[in-house]
Design a protein that fits this description.
The structure is a homotetramer. Helices cover about 80% and strands about 0% of the residues of chain A. By secondary structure, the first copy, chain A, is mainly alpha-helical. Chain A has two domains: about 50 residues, Arc Repressor Mutant, subunit A, CATH 1.10.10.60; about 150 residues, Tetracycline Repressor, domain 2 (Orthogonal Bundle). In chain A, helix 1 crosses helix 5, helix 5 runs antiparallel to helix 6 and helix 5 packs across helix 7. The radius of gyration of chain A is 20 Å and the shape is elongated. The mean pLDDT of chain A is about 80. Chains A and B meet through helix 7 and helix 8 of A and helix 8 and helix 9 of B. Chain B binds a DNA duplex (21 and 21 nucleotides) through helix 3. Chains A, B, C, D: Keywords: DNA-binding.
Chain lengths: ~210, ~210, ~210, ~210
Amino acid sequence: MQILKDEVKRSICTAALAEFKQHGFLKASMRQIAEAAGMTPGNIYRYFKSKEDLFGELLQPVYEELTMAMGTIKQEIDGSLCVEVKDHLSFLRQIDATLIRLFRESSTELNILLNLSEGSEYRAVKGDLVTLVNQIMLDVYGTMSEVPGMLSPREQASARMVASTIMESICLILRENEDGDMIKMLVDELLFMYSVGIGEKMRLRHT
Amino acid sequence: MQILKDEVKRSICTAALAEFKQHGFLKASMRQIAEAAGMTPGNIYRYFKSKEDLFGELLQPVYEELTMAMGTIKQEIDGSLCVEVKDHLSFLRQIDATLIRLFRESSTELNILLNLSEGSEYRAVKGDLVTLVNQIMLDVYGTMSEVPGMLSPREQASARMVASTIMESICLILRENEDGDMIKMLVDELLFMYSVGIGEKMRLRHT
Amino acid sequence: MQILKDEVKRSICTAALAEFKQHGFLKASMRQIAEAAGMTPGNIYRYFKSKEDLFGELLQPVYEELTMAMGTIKQEIDGSLCVEVKDHLSFLRQIDATLIRLFRESSTELNILLNLSEGSEYRAVKGDLVTLVNQIMLDVYGTMSEVPGMLSPREQASARMVASTIMESICLILRENEDGDMIKMLVDELLFMYSVGIGEKMRLRHT
Amino acid sequence: MQILKDEVKRSICTAALAEFKQHGFLKASMRQIAEAAGMTPGNIYRYFKSKEDLFGELLQPVYEELTMAMGTIKQEIDGSLCVEVKDHLSFLRQIDATLIRLFRESSTELNILLNLSEGSEYRAVKGDLVTLVNQIMLDVYGTMSEVPGMLSPREQASARMVASTIMESICLILRENEDGDMIKMLVDELLFMYSVGIGEKMRLRHT
DNA sequence: GATGAATGAGGGTTCATTCAT
DNA sequence: TATGAATGAACCCTCATTCAT
């Protein structure tokens, strides 16, 4: 018994991470994980109560950091009055930076958390991020609207769309790329497109 | 109570559509569909040969229309020389228009086809659309590049990202909205943002 | 309602015969039969109580004729004392003739009865025929044995083998040939081989 | 009560062998096998990938030996010119000896392989054997024919019949007897009858 | 007399999970 | 601590049979 408990646990996590990344939560197989970890399925249950539990333990740290960062940003948003466009962009960039930092630290976990958690308790994380970005967007639109603070349903839907597509796009970039620098570059470019586009759009509307 | 065959078939389709929309092809359960349609599972097989067949019968029309439209657009792209930026946008708008028209006719089906068809024979549809858009993007980038026709790996990755995120975003809009006019508006806005953004970006790079 | 009941019944029988011939009792499908008969499965059950019943009604006549002929032959065997070899052969030829006559009248039914009735109540028919032929063989062997009437286990097993293989071979010929004359020829040839062979064998043993 | 893996596997094989012997491949039920082996169906799949796999693992050794022996015999046949009748008989006896040896080692398996493999990948084995014997028979008939090498359709059908009935008869003997010595005796007797019979038949035809 | 929709029990198979060892 | 055999519920699917119409 020279294998310490922690070492075993780590090997399970490593195997599970790979399996979840490849097949997502729902289609991941406990047997595969056990095999890859060099043990039998039953033993996993000495370390984790269930598939959900194992999944949770892997993603919990990333999830918490993400939640915390989102909480901070949310507070800043709620606390700031008379925000300007570039401030909004700065919020976006904060989110962006958070995601990229998390990605650099835990690329696989973040990828799984955002893109492969269907069927688990984390399935809503992406939606939460969207909601946050949406809040920013509503402010942006609110500032630029003819009647500040009063958004038409169309404008609300538009803001929601922008929030969703930005988040979805960032998730996609995380999903389809492995290299951290490449991801940073692509996300930057994405935000650049959105921002300049949004700026142009707004300018055109008011002239 | 003798129910007419068509009525039963329709009730199966309704139930199946709902089940597929909620769980996707892979996780949809024939038992659930049967229950929702008010019958036993075996009876479904009087109307449809298999789960795949049921899935196919629901999506086939939308799939064919989409494929046909994509084929036409592809031919136009391949056939046109010395394309200009606005032409590229017109291609995008054609794709956009196709999707929106299909969505007006069969919103749920298109949604399932693009977002929930994993595990079925239609699993590649979204990827095909991305590939098509990517082809357009490569032309756009190629035209604007300093050395026309020669794209750096970064530029290629960027084009690929734009293609993917545009398609993903359109899918998302289709997924999260029910009203056809709203969808049209949001997709227009999305493309507007992307195009003006891309234009700005390119202009800035060359000055 | 211009289709008389009998006509419908006959069309069911025709379809059933074909299906049973092709797939045997066990794998025959009531749906297929109904379809081939131009009706729905349920209707068959107005004419026949079950698959077994339908099967039985098709084979009953042939079965009865066969049973009757076998009974007659059995009586002759039991009634004749001090039978000679050629008489035994005549019994074999009677069986042979019976089968061939039945085949000429009802080739498909006999084929099904003997070769494709597994799973039905007729599954034992071939065995019954074997038992009859075996009885003849036991007499043949008994007559030729050194101690008439007393057969060693080996001789009993041998007789049993000959009975089985003859019947099995005849069934095989029925199974693999369609033409009545060809069948007669082949069965004759088979019996000729067996009889001459048996005769030789016996002669050699006693010299 | 932890049972050793091999013991369980063996109990599955035992149960499966009995089930396949009783119902054949197609109608054998995995649930029945599981019950007979004292477990639930799912557990069988820890030991065998599928019904086909289980079937194959039971029959593979016998199948391979049979195939190898048939290959050898076929080569000898193809390689020998101007064969005589007694040589043909020697080929038959080789086949005979092979089957009997295999039967001594694996009676049930051989029985299943030859008689109960419909629906599996082994379904053609008996037919292959018949084809091989037929090849021998065609040579026999060819040698004895008035115009050597030219067989009338009747003669061809006759040869085919002899080949089929011999193989069918040997299978039957294997099927209905358990004792190896008894089987050997019966098959010898069968071939003896056939050969002497064939010889007589030919002699009579030419005088 | 005929329909055909519907059932229910069974088919092979998968897999997260449990537990005696 | 670790095993891995075993379970049980679920999966998709088939088919003889029934019965309201």
